[in-house]
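Readers of this paper often ask what the protein records in our data store actually look like. Nothing more is needed to write down the fold, since each code stands for a local backbone conformation. Below, we set out a record of this kind in full and without editing:
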Amino acid sequence: MRNLDKYKGVIPAFYACYDEAGDISPEGVQALTGYFVEKGVKGVYVNGSSGECIYLSVEDRKILLENVMKVAAGKLTVIAHVACNNTKDSMELARHAESLGVDAIAAIPPIYFHLPEYAIAQYWNDISAAAPNTDFVIYNIPQLAGVALTQSLFTEMRKNPRVIGVKNSSMPVQDIQMFQQEAGEDYIIFNGPDEQFISGRAIGAEGAIGGTYGAMPELYLQLDECIRVGNMDVAREIQYAVDAIIYKMCSAHGNMYAVIKAVLKMNEGLELGGVREPLPPLVDSDRVIVEEAAEMIRVARMEYLA
């Protein structure tokens, strides 16, 4: 049986960090990585949806991961999302990630063309073959990718010994149960949707990867601990509190990740830049929402971490 303990816990999805010119900021990446080390999270998920991967070049993603590893090596579990919308670039990123010593690579299915399952399996297996000494995580996010992980495709992918589990970001929490029940104890299923952290953990997810964890990691760590010890009443209260913060951050004109980066600047002093177009940047009227979200996080910390 594989040792999956290094994946069990709260794993924030890493944000793309930009300088004033809109290029990847090595200093910002290293500062954000150090922030996660200090907060005590289990690991980081790099170059995924929250990292704006669709809008980054192969070189951007290499620079970002290299600077994460300069700080994270030995201190955080690192899962690198390497999928591009073609196999060649994805394999290049997989080889690069393995050369840096990441713990696992991950990949969404190819998007735009609706490929048959055997072609998706071939895509994932080719990526995995480019990093033959590294664990592989399937990233299931059908509402964005347009392709869902089926039980038959999951069964096919488990023939690959490097496949260790699924980052499940589909909205039905039942999917977590189905994947976990089908795969058994030798695989790990990560909860994806932050708004159902408590539900996903309760139904079988042993790890969690989320895009809003970075804005308030202490709250998710406390939520995870409450679930672990069976204090479900407080866990439910914290879930409601973080959900209210998420809804507030989503109410801005600018993209939610632009809001999160502004919140981190306000609450933590981190300079991470904005978001890459075509994601919409913050506008002046969003300032109030940023301030309100930042305050909500500070109030929740005082209430649940005292």
Summary: The longest helix spans residues 286-304.
